[in-house]
Amino acid sequence: MHLRPGYVEFAWGHPDLHLLPLEHLRHAAVRALADHGHDALSYGAAQGPGRLIEQICARLEQVDGQAARLDQILITAGVSHALDLICAIHTCPGNIALVESPVYHFALRILRDRGLELLPIPTDQDGLRLDMLAQTLAQLRRANRLARLLYTVPTFSNPTGITLGAQRRSRLAEIAAEHDLLVVEDDVYRELWFDTPPPPSMIMYDQAHVVRLGSFSKILAPGLRLGWMMAAPALISRAAGSGVLTSGGGLSHFQAHVVAEYMRLGLLDAHVVDLRAAYKARRDTLVAALLKCLPAGCHFTAPEGGFFIWVRLPEGIDAAALLARAEEARVAYVPGAHFHVDGGGQRELRLAFSLLPPQEMVEGARRLGHVIGAAS
Amino acid sequence: MHLRPGYVEFAWGHPDLHLLPLEHLRHAAVRALADHGHDALSYGAAQGPGRLIEQICARLEQVDGQAARLDQILITAGVSHALDLICAIHTCPGNIALVESPVYHFALRILRDRGLELLPIPTDQDGLRLDMLAQTLAQLRRANRLARLLYTVPTFSNPTGITLGAQRRSRLAEIAAEHDLLVVEDDVYRELWFDTPPPPSMIMYDQAHVVRLGSFSKILAPGLRLGWMMAAPALISRAAGSGVLTSGGGLSHFQAHVVAEYMRLGLLDAHVVDLRAAYKARRDTLVAALLKCLPAGCHFTAPEGGFFIWVRLPEGIDAAALLARAEEARVAYVPGAHFHVDGGGQRELRLAFSLLPPQEMVEGARRLGHVIGAAS
């Protein structure tokens, strides 16, 4: 990440450095090495250290109202690694992967690296369109083809901020079961809700057809490269049996011990509460600034959690073409087309409110409003 | 790793826990978080933190007599991850990978997970047989087929302990260039030489056709899951451009900062010198005990570095079948067939001297000698 001086960089969906609990993580690292340093520095289990898996199961009991079992969790080097691992054990090159559209752009690259054919399923203001999903699956079935998985970010979506409601989740689970479709749920923003907790994870609707991907990148520190997947024990066991994990053990062994200690010390609860307040304030600031500064014809919805606001531009304005002018005015964003596989999203753009201090966002909204206004 | 009480576990090629520099790593972790904690906890570059890349380049100048360039190094989550990453960017399922035989068994699983067809190239007492390599490549060429890579552990091999001499290295480089074959050199034992340094890395013979895989697992701590690859800048850049690394940054970002600090403090040099002395003493102990205890008809060669001794059993004894009886006598090893793709190695077995204290190895050699003697 290169932050250009004088620019308002709405493009980076990174947490603010000042929100990293540096001192507490240092304390946890020292404790982890003092109390079980040999474990932390040795080869570990392919599934990940039991210490962290136990902490995650306990935390999921708080989050979900129902504990995950130990054999449902595998520690990963973050969601990107987890997604790649699922492709490794569940797909072959040439298979079809359905992707919510728009969706996290780098996930598309991970799926493409595995040689998958990507078919977009459109979303509306309430998230994934299940009529379109059912229609696509029916078409595939008629053509005697199979979709191996659906990748979706149903909770505080990256990039749209939208959350799929309980009713659609329930219907998605039905469709997945009917078509034996694996739903890969990127669930990294769940804990960062601002007003009320979001609907349950997809895995609460169907334990057999959902892999839920969690991460400490948003709620603790991205540099730890630490996450987890929750899935049916058979799938967890296949992932743990992959060559890379069998050879060296879990990829994030050392930092898993540090985070297990951080959680054991009870530090995560208070930190997440602080983050919710901090990000909520940022969302409020950016929403207020956009309401004030964006010209008529722009639309956006205030997200109820996560890091992002998705803006729709007035008709006739292309977000990718506008970026050059925005950068001249020293404000940056990610054009919507980046999050589509089929060339959609031209009139849309993603703003992140996770990284920037409030005053900077206010100035950024002013510049953006000016640039859009000039192009209208 | 489960160490069964009362057993002598020669099967595990792990470092002795007492050789882990726990205190110094704790110190480095504290310093890394104090001095550049925000960097260590943020998303990092896909290539890995510049701090560690610089330290590795400087160290390679000591090891090789020639510094690596910064654009030749990418930080990995160890050699297993690196090997998988090379497959991702350089192979497609169905491609042919040549593998030295016998060779590190879990590497075979990583290559198979990528859907590669494995063709073994035999070794003799001096390592890879280049006549057989040339012959296989010529046969493939006649059949209009291509081998995409050769995986080899030419220095203090796992499992044989054998080191490929300078002359064969030079010839291997010629063959690789002639057939445009990528040589993937697993170079993790290089620094653990006991008497004199080994011949130069394969990459010193040909920078275009060699990827060299290094690791901190053997010289520092396996739990860090930290390694590096050295290759032509174009290949490094392709690896860094993979979806997984682009999405989240390098997989071992946090521990890379810790190890960069450890190296900056100058702690690695003295530690590696200590390890050489410790492993040399263990090798000497096990070699002396095997000479004393193994019955006539057994053969082995004292390795000049690394972790392993490769034992050939008397004619008519199958190492896999013998293992049950060895375990009854409470001594364990890995049967040679595990390291072959084609069912070879029945009369061979691998002993690791890295993990066990000297007295335990003496007792293990006694038990093993007894079991082999009883089967002869």
What does this structure look like?
Two copies of one chain form a homodimer. The model of chain A has no long low-confidence stretch (mean pLDDT 96). Chain A is α/β, with parallel strands linked by helices and 376 residues long. In chain A, the strands form three sheets. In chain A, strands 2-9-8-7-6-3-4-5 form an eight-stranded mixed sheet, sandwiched between helices. The radius of gyration of chain A is 21 Å and the shape is globular. The first copy, chain A, has twelve helices and 14 strands. The first copy, chain A, has helices at 22-41, 50-64, 79-90, 105-113, 130-142, 166-179, 233-240, 243-248, 253-264, 267-293, 319-328, 358-375; strands at 8-9, 73-76, 96-101, 117-124, 127-128, 147-152, 182-186, 210-215, 227-230, 299-300, 308-312, 331-332, 334-335, 348-352. The longest helix of chain A has 27 residues, at 267-293. The first copy, chain A, starts with 7 loop residues before the first strand and ends with a helix. The first copy, chain A, is 44% helix and 16% strand. At the A-B interface, helix 1, helix 3, helix 4, helix 8 and helix 9 of A face helix 1, helix 3, helix 4, helix 8 and helix 9 of B.
